[in-house]
Amino acid sequence: MRPENRRGTHSVPISDIRASAYEVPTDAPESDGTFAWRSTTLVVVELTAGGEHGLGYTYADACTVDLVQRVLGEVLRGHDAMDIPARMDALMRRMRNIGWRGAGAMALSAVDVALWDLKARLLGLPLMRLLGAARTRVPVYGSGGFTSYSLEQLQAQLGGWVAQGFSRVKMKVGSQPEEDPERVAAARRAIGPHAALFVDGNGAYSVAQALLLAERFVEQGVSWFEEPVSSDDLEGLHRIRAKVPAGLAVAAGEYGDSALYFRRMLSAGAVDVLQADATRCLGISGFLQADALCQAFQVPLSAHCAPALHAQVGCASRRLVHLEYFHDHARLEELLFDGSPRVEHGELVPDGTRPGLGLELKRADAERYAVMRP
């Protein structure tokens, strides 16, 4: 059926909204410069309209389920699924007195993704075709290298990605700054001289520490320093960016929750590369706004985590340079979703024959991890 015949000029009212949460244990203890964890929680949002369903998700606490179903659901039911800006404006108004940042932004992000997935399915199009594709595949970098890993685990994971064809890998730093130069040197030995090596501090350092360690990291060919200080410290990021050795890019933005957040970061000259995460920055809509801002400021964009979710919008983003193939999320998405995009020669390739995001929840497999259901 041709796409225009599936909808015509008629409204397609949303008939149902459901949310559920699944907590999946990690395959080993994990930590970064400021946090440690043993499980990852996925919150899934499903919308129904016109005989189709749309799927969105975020990585958030299970309490987000109640927010989606009880608060956001009442604003969505009975309204046209095709008019996404109108739906998101109404949801933002509903969240005004509750507070839309934090868990609220994650809930809104999952709903926005589900709306885009639903619209694409109603039109019978892959999401990247609906948005307008700039490419058909997205470069990725392998991301893990947790500070809880032994040197042997670190080398095996990063070296394994390079052996699979990844040309970029990232490791965590910051838990024990005095050990970071040795760990970075071990990573370089494992991946060889040609693969790009990224480090992520998760805001663990002071400005002085970051500048001192930047010199040591560059000796090992590190080309990306992510969140050397907190993303909230725009002045600190700017100072670091101005003083690090040439060739070392400062990146941040993964906690951004709106276009205003990204505009402030870019206006402050805080980053060489902006990161955006559609599971936090108000979904596909917010990610496209981040891309537009990067276009205006002539700054590269990198997608943070959730590779299966970002593959299609990444293909539609003009300023995107790569996507984070985060170990936890890649493992979980392969476990819980049918249709996860495949990795070929260090690039993520979405299935262009499936409508929407191309994902379906493996309900039977997911059930064992369920912590909250509709």
Descriptive terms for the model:
374 residues, alpha/beta, Enolase-like, domain 1, TIM Barrel, eight-stranded parallel barrel, four-stranded antiparallel beta sheet, 14 helices, 25% strand
Describe the structure.
This protein has 374 residues and is of the alpha/beta class. It has two domains: 3-124 and 364-372, Enolase-like, domain 1; 129-362, Enolase-like C-terminal domain (TIM Barrel, Alpha-Beta Barrel), CATH 3.20.20.120. The protein has helices at 3-7, 64-76, 84-94, 103-123, 127-131, 151-163, 180-191, 207-219, 234-243, 259-267, 283-297, 307-315, 327-336, 363-367; strands at residues 14-31, 36-49, 52-59, 138-144, 168-172, 196-200, 222-226, 249-252, 273-276, 301-303, 320-326, 337-338, 342-344, 347-349, 360-361, 370-372. The strands form three sheets. An eight-stranded parallel beta barrel has the order 4-5-6-7-8-9-10-11, surrounded by eight helices. A four-stranded antiparallel sheet has the order 3-2-1-16, with helices on both faces. A two-stranded antiparallel ribbon has the order 12-15. Helix 2 packs across helix 4 (103-123), helix 3 (84-94) runs antiparallel to helix 4 (103-123) and helix 6 (151-163) packs parallel to helix 7 (180-191). The longest helix is centred in the N-terminal third of the chain and has 21 residues, at 103-123. It starts with a helix and ends with a strand. The model is unreliable at 1-5 (pLDDT under 50).
